[in-house]
Specification:
The structure holds 2 protein chains of 2 kinds. Chain A is an all-beta fold. Chain A has strands at 5-7, 10-13, 19-24, 31-37, 43-50, 65-69, 75-79, 88-95, 104-105, 109-113. The chains are: A mainly beta, B mainly beta.
Chain lengths: 114, 110
């Protein structure tokens, strides 16, 4: 089956605009993660969804960032009033959830704020 | 709180030299540990997990509960090993999330 799919693959936006990034996880995966990867840097955790539980939003850097997961499947990460420091690759991952399961990553969305 | 620490941001070794990427974790229970790898222009993917006790692409990692470490090793580095490596921890809990370290960039010099 298909892996984790993210769209768009690239997004250039003007400072101050809002953007939406989409993630289609692997079917049946109950856990979904968003990460940010700045140029040459490691993974920065943003948010974690697990089934019907309240999401773990502890990694969101500011209130300009929010995410939804509708119907336990597709997720959208929204960044309002984008700033240049938001420029990064945004990665989505999903897993079956539960004890010790592997995470499968998408190809990422490269966001450039000009 | 659970934490994964990778003390080296960058590790550069010569081709044919041994490689050790360090990973330490903090958790009092029994975690499952993973190494993930991201090659240039490819997706981040699982390299190996400790429970499998397997060698992948010549890499092995041993869980040392006494030292709370899960270092990744390879006896003879190859140029194609150049990549970003992430150590990760997952807890034996139904609501467990995977916690990643900050990553180590491995560069193999010819």
């Amino acid at each position: 089956g298909a892996g984790v799919s993210q769209s768009p693959s690239n997004k250039v936006t003007e400072k101050g605009k809002d953007v939406e990034l989409r993630c289609d996880p692997i079917s049946g995966h109950t856990a979904l993660y968003w990460y940010r990867q700045s140029l040459g840097q490691g993974l920065e955790f943003l948010i974690y969804f697990q089934g019907n539980s309240a999401p773990d939003k502890s990694g969101l850097p500011s209130d300009r960032f929010s995410a939804e997961r509708t119907g336990g499947s597709v997720s959208t990460l929204t960044i309002q009033r984008t700033q240049q420091e938001d420029s990064a690759v945004y990665l989505c991952a999903s897993s079956r959830g539960g004890a010790g399961t592997e995470a499968f990553f998408g190809q990422g969305t490269r966001l450039t704020v000009v | 709180a659970q934490r994964v620490t990778q003390p080296e941001k960058l590790l550069s070794v010569f081709k044919g030299a041994p490689v050790e990427l360090k990973c330490n974790y903090s958790y009092s229970g029994s975690p499952e540990l993973f190494w993930y790898v991201q090659y240039s222009r490819q997706r981040l993917q699982l390299l190996l997990r400790h429970i499998s006790r397997e060698s992948i692409k010549g890499f092995t990692a041993d869980l040392n509960k006494g030292e709370t470490s899960f270092h990744l090793k390879k006896p003879f580095a190859q140029e194609e090993d150049s990549a970003m490596y992430y150590c990760a921890l997952s807890l034996y809990s139904s609501a467990s999330k995977i916690i990643f370290g900050s990553g180590t960039r491995l560069s193999i010099r010819p």
